[in-house]
Amino acid sequence: MLIGLTGNPNTDKASPSSTVTTTATATQIAAANSQPSAGKVPSDGIPGDGTYVVGSDIKPGTYRSEGPQGGLVTSCYWARLSSTSGEAKDIIANDDTSGQTTVTIAATDKAFTTTGCKAWKKTG
Questions:
Q1: Phi, psi of 28 (to 5 degrees)
Q2: What DSSP string runs through 16-85?
Q3: How far apart are CA 53 and CA 64, in angstroms?
Q4: Is the dihedral angle over the CA atoms 103, 87, 108, 59 positive or is it negative?
Q5: Of the residues 1, 12, 40, 94, which has the maximum number of CB atoms within 10 A of its CB?
Q6: For 53-73, what is each residue's pLDDT tens digit?
Q7: What pLDDT shows up at residue 41?
Q8: Residues 73, 20: Cα–Cα separation, whole Å
Q9: 84 Cβ partners below 8 Å, 6+ apart?
Q10: Residues of the chain with pLDDT under 50
Q11: Residue 12 DSSP symbol
């Protein structure tokens, strides 16, 4: 007795599969989260990544962050801005730190942006 299979030999073979890996940078993540809702921002701090308008999203004052979020995020970037146009000339002051940092946001600043930092707490 002969038992066999019939079929197309080209379709019976296993096809190799591929794996796709996507990596997002802190800047890409921040850009996706750059539109905070004024109703969700606590009056005593800045919750995380984003660009916040001074006077409507956040209050002027001195804020402190304990540093980078951790894990793959090893630096904490912040900038005080004279405009929200996204141009480099709008940066009043900025820093990229690896530890605790403090910044004073003036009432004359238009906005404050932060990427990769732990929540900012208002200290003054």
A1: -65, -40
A2: P---------HHHHHHHT----GGGS-TTEE-SSEEEEBTTTB-SEEEEE-SB-BTTB--EEEEEES-SS
A3: 18
A4: negative
A5: 94
A6: 999 999 999 999 999 999 999
A7: 58
A8: 22
A9: 51, 53, 90, 110, 111
A10: 1-2, 5-7, 11-39
A11: S
